Amino acid sequence: MWEKIIACDRTYDGLFFTAVKTTKIYCRPSCKSRKPKKINVEFYYDIIEVEKSGFRACKRCQPEVEHTPHIGLVRNVTSYLVNNYKQKVALQDIADYVGISPYHLDRLFKQETSETPRTYLEKIRIDKAMHLLKNTNHTNLEICYEVGFQSTSNFYKSFRRLTNCSPSEYRTLEG
């Protein structure tokens, strides 16, 4: 277990916890905080046991949270995308909004959701387009620009990739 915390191995998160006797703090095996001396560490397999023993959760890796420590960041990004899908959104805009570098944002978001902010935004736009196709008489071109696509070819290509049909076919099927 000591080797796993030194390596910050994420695959062991949730399987055991490391508790530091001197600080009375417990962490995930993947925590990036400075590593304690080996003699000050106890290992626990259960979060209830570690808390009963008087340890508090690390504020950096948040082991008491079922999700990953980046869930707040992911929520902020998805909220931003949902609220700004009509605008032209660049990765730098999202990164500025959440306060981290574009590269780090892209990597963390993909790590947590298995997709990039760009593909997530595209899904939001296509979902909105499907709603408009089903519930309005707007033309495909109007819908394309209404949901934030900058080019019709990109709209049609994305729509077909995500729905396996064109916008017109979708309107006919759902109409």
Structure, described:
Keywords: Activator, DNA-binding, Methyltransferase, Transcription, Transcription regulation, Transferase. Its cofactor is Zn(2+). Residues 75-173 form the HTH araC/xylS-type domain. With 175 residues, the chain is an alpha+beta fold. It folds into 2 domains: 2-57, 3-Layer(aba) Sandwich (DNA Methylphosphotriester Repair Domain); 71-175, Homeodomain-like (Arc Repressor Mutant, subunit A, Orthogonal Bundle), CATH 1.10.10. The protein contains 9 helices and 4 strands; from the N terminus they run αβββαβααααααα. The chain has helices at 2-6, 47-52, 71-84, 91-98, 102-113, 117-135, 140-146, 152-163, 167-174; strands at residues 17-20, 25-27, 41-44, 56-57. The chain has a 4-stranded mixed beta sheet. Strand 1 (17-20) and strand 2 (25-27) form a beta hairpin. Helix 3 (71-84) packs across helix 5 (102-113). The termini are far apart. The mean pLDDT is 90.
Mean pLDDT: 90
CATH superfamily of the largest domain: Homeodomain-like
Shape: elongated
Strand content: 5-15%
CATH level 1 class label of the largest domain: Mainly Alpha
Outline the low-pLDDT stretches.
Answer: none
**What is the architecture of the largest domain at the second tier of CATH?**
Orthogonal Bundle
